[in-house]
């Protein structure tokens, strides 16, 4: 009987028994969105705090060994940028949500988004490869001067050239460094392509 009634009313038996599911109100959706962004901001804060502590500890080690641990430049080159990008992207996502803006469906915007992501990944890889190779040379050849020119590989030369330029910006223009990565996060939030719904994917 329920099945017949459901077919006649063009619905399903569960809806007849339990009623229609109430959609979340705009306030509930907004609260969930804020909570999600706050969680990401807390994660970014933890990354900064942990990185700062490790860098400070590395400075204490350097006083005794006269050699800065390789994790210090890596944290400055990778961990901090990730935290700044998270902060920038989450703040911009909240602004876009408040303004009612949606992710764009234009293909060229998706292409720009992918290019930006690729550039960020290249930087992260350059910093990681450079730091790993320098640490390898230090351990294997006992090179404590930081001059690893005699042991450079082709891969290291390529990534190290990118990494050195980034380090120069960090050393001489720290505010520009922070602002630049924050802007990258904002651009990621703005350019992020719209997710396809299940219905549009089927069509």
Question: Brief description of this entry?
Answer:
The protein has helices at residues 2-8, 13-18, 26-65, 71-99, 107-141, 154-172, 174-191, 198-202.
- Radius of gyration from the alpha-carbon trace, in angstroms: 25 Å
Could you tell me the mean pLDDT? 80
**Proportion of helical residues:** over 70%
Number of helices: 8
Q: How are helices and strands ordered from N to C? A: HHHHHHHH
Distance between the termini: 34 Å
What general outline do the C-alpha atoms trace? elongated
Task: Please provide a written account of the structure.
With 203 residues, the protein is an all-alpha fold. 78% of the residues lie in helices and 0% in strands. It is built from 8 helices and no strands. It has helices spanning 2-8, 13-18, 26-65, 71-99, 107-141, 154-172, 174-191, 198-202. The chain is elongated.
Indicate the topology.
Blueprint: H1 2-8, H2 13-18, H3 26-65, H4 71-99, H5 107-141, H6 154-172, H7 174-191, H8 198-202
Helix pairs in contact: 3-4, 4-5, 4-7, 5-6, 5-7, 6-7
Task: Please describe the structure with a list of short key phrases separated by commas or semicolons.
mainly alpha, 203 residues, disordered C terminus
């Amino acid at each position: 009987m329920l099945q017949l009634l459901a077919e006649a009313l063009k619905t399903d038996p569960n809806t007849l028994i339990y009623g229609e599911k109430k959609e979340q109100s705009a306030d509930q959706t907004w609260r969930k969105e804020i909570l999600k962004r706050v969680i990401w901001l807390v994660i970014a804060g933890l990354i900064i705090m942990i990185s700062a502590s490790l860098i400070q500890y590395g400075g204490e080690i350097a006083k005794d060994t006269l050699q800065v641990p390789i994790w210090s430049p890596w944290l400055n080159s990778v961990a901090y940028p990730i935290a700044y990008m998270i902060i920038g992207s989450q703040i911009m996502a909240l602004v876009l949500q408040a303004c009612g803006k949606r992710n764009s469906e234009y293909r060229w915007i998706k292409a720009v988004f992918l290019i930006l992501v690729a550039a960020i990944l290249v930087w992260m890889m350059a910093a990681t490869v450079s730091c790993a190779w320098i640490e390898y040379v230090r351990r294997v050849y006992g090179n404590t001067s930081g001059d690893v020119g005699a042991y450079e590989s082709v891969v290291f030369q390529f990534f190290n050239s990118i990494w050195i330029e980034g380090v120069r910006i960090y050393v001489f223009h720290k505010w520009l460094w922070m602002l630049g990565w924050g802007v990258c996060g904002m651009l990621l939030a703005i350019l992020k392509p719209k997710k396809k719904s299940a219905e549009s994917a089927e069509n």
